[in-house]
Amino acid sequence: MLLICRYAVPETGIEDFLSQARTAMRLLGAQPGCRGVQLTRTVEQDPDGVDWTLIARFDSVVAYRRALSPFDVREHVVPFLSRAEVGGSAVHEVLVESVPGEESPREQESLLARDRGSVRLGEVAGPDVPRR
């Protein structure tokens, strides 16, 4: 599972942004189920500022949600994540992955149940239709 958050940071705000990003990365990276956190920067200059992307990899959706639960994470990480640009979901699942040395890309089982669109709030007890 991937968390992908994009940020447009003006040149004057980079030091503050990096300080907050380092704290968020340290706290997220210390959580069980977190496989790693990266902060990337575009190499193409945007006239409005520098484009940054925070990428965190988790074992599962459950691990991601639990990683956001501790108090220090809610105090420091959640406000930082809320500064990200809005334009769609930031939480993604990996379905196909190319691994060096392997001939064909690996397909991953979806984390979502096939009947996910048919269950309404208050009705969920578990998927009626198992994952693939």
Overview of this protein structure:
The protein is an alpha+beta fold. The protein folds into two domains: 91 residues, 2-Layer Sandwich (Alpha-Beta Plaits), CATH 3.30.70; 38 residues, no CATH class. The chain is 27% helix and 23% strand. The chain is built from three helices and six strands. Strands 2-3-1-4 form a four-stranded antiparallel sheet. Strand 5 and strand 6 form a beta hairpin. Helix 1 packs across helix 3. The two termini are 17 Å apart.
Question: Which key features would you list for this structure?
Answer:
single chain; 132 residues; alpha+beta; Alpha-Beta Plaits; 2 domains; four-stranded antiparallel beta sheet; two-stranded antiparallel ribbon; 27% helix; 23% strand; globular; Dimeric_a/b-barrel
**Rg (C-alpha, Å):** 17 Å
The main sheet orders its strands as 2-3-1-4
Largest sheet, strands/sense/barrel: 4 strands, antiparallel
Q: Structural class from helices and strands?
A: alpha+beta
Assign the CATH class of the largest domain. Answer: Alpha Beta
How many structural domains?
Answer: 2
Helix percent band = 25-40%
Number of helices: 3
What's the overall geometry? globular
What is the mean pLDDT?
84
Low-pLDDT runs of 5+ residues are: none
* Architecture per CATH nomenclature, i.e. the level-2 architecture of the largest domain: 2-Layer Sandwich
Count of β-strands: 6
Distance between termini?
A: 17 Å
Strand content: 15-25%
The CATH topology assignment of the largest domain is Alpha-Beta Plaits
The helix/strand order is EHEEHHEEE
